[in-house]
Design goal:
The protein is an all-alpha fold and 253 residues long. It is 77% helix and 0% strand. It contains 10 helices and no strands.
C-alpha cells in the first residue's frame, strides 16, 4: 500500500497538478521515479514470494493440525478420565501408566458410575465439584496418579508447541503461529493444577482441605477442559480443511 501511494503521489505531482519542480530538477525527478519503481517492484516481488511460500507449505500446516488435534484429544480424555470417566479408550503407554491407576482409584472413591467434573460444576449447587475433588484430592494415591498424568500430558504439548511454533515463525506464518501460542495457556493451566496437587502433603490419609482452595481448583479444572475443547475444535476443523482424502464411511452403524 505504501508503494502504491508513493507512486500515485508522484504521478499526481507531475500530472494533473503540473508541479514544475520536476521539470526544473530532472536529476531529482529521475532519482525519485527510479526509487518509486524500485519500491513498487520490491513490494510486488515480496508479496509474490510470500504467497508462493504459503502455498508450498500448506501441507505443513495440515500436518501440524493433525498432531496438535491428536494431542489435545488425548489430553481431553485424560482430564475427563481422572474424575473416573472410562469409555474404554486407552492412551499411549507413558500416559496410561499413571492415568490407569488414578482412573480406577477415582471410580472406587466415588462409589458410583463415572462422573464428569464439568457436569457437576454446572449444577445449581456450586459445591458439587468442590465436594467431588475433596474426596479425590484427599486420597494420596489419586493425587500421585493425577499429578503425574497432568505432567506427562503437558510434556507432549510442550514438544508439539515448540516444534510447530518454531516452524511457523521461520515461515512467517503469523496466523498459525499465534494459534499455536494459544496452547501455551493450556500448558500453564495444567502446570497450575499439577503444582496444586504436588503441594498437598503426601504423608497420611487425612488431609485438611481449604474449601476456598477446593472451589478454585474445581474452577481451574473446568477452565482447562473448556480451553482444551476450544483448541481441539479449531485444529480438528483446520485438519479437515486441509485434508486431501475423503474419509471412509463407517462399515457398522
Amino acid at each position: 500500500m505504501l508503494a502504491i501511494l508513493l507512486a500515485v503521489a508522484l504521478a499526481i505531482s507531475d500530472w494533473p497538478l503540473g508541479w514544475r519542480f520536476w521539470g526544473h530538477h530532472p536529476f531529482i525527478a529521475e532519482f525519485a521515479g527510479g526509487l518509486a519503481l524500485l519500491f513498487v517492484a520490491g513490494s510486488v516481488f515480496d508479496a509474490y514470494r510470500r504467497r508462493r511460500e504459503a502455498h508450498r507449505w500448506h501441507g505443513l500446516g495440515f500436518a501440524a493440525a493433525g498432531e496438535l488435534a491428536a494431542i489435545l484429544y488425548d489430553t481431553a480424555i485424560a482430564v475427563s478420565a481422572l474424575t473416573g470417566s472410562d469409555d474404554g479408550y486407552r492412551l499411549r503407554s507413558d500416559v496410561e501408566f499413571h492415568l490407569g491407576p488414578a482412573r480406577d482409584r477415582a471410580t472406587r472413591l466415588m462409589g458410583r458410575a463415572p462422573i464428569d467434573a464439568d457436569a457437576i460444576y454446572d449444577e445449581p449447587d456450586p459445591g458439587g465439584a468442590a465436594g467431588m475433588f475433596s474426596t479425590l484430592i484427599g486420597d494420596a494415591a489419586w493425587r500421585r496418579g493425577a499429578s503425574q498424568t497432568l505432567r506427562v500430558s503437558r510434556s507432549h504439548l510442550v514438544e508439539a508447541v515448540s516444534r510447530w511454533a518454531t516452524t511457523f515463525a521461520v515461515l512467517n506464518d503469523d496466523e498459525d503461529f499465534n494459534r499455536v501460542a494459544h496452547t501455551v495457556t493450556i500448558m500453564d493451566q495444567i502446570t497450575s493444577l499439577h503444582m496444586t496437587l504436588v503441594a498437598v502433603p503426601q504423608a497420611g490419609e487425612a488431609v485438611n482441605l481449604d474449601p476456598v482452595a477446593l472451589s478454585s481448583f474445581a474452577t481451574q479444572w473446568t477452565k482447562l477442559r473448556d480451553a482444551v475443547d476450544t483448541e481441539l475444535a479449531f485444529w480438528t476443523a483446520r485438519r479437515r480443511l486441509g485434508s486431501r482424502i475423503e474419509l471412509a464411511v463407517p462399515l457398522l452403524r
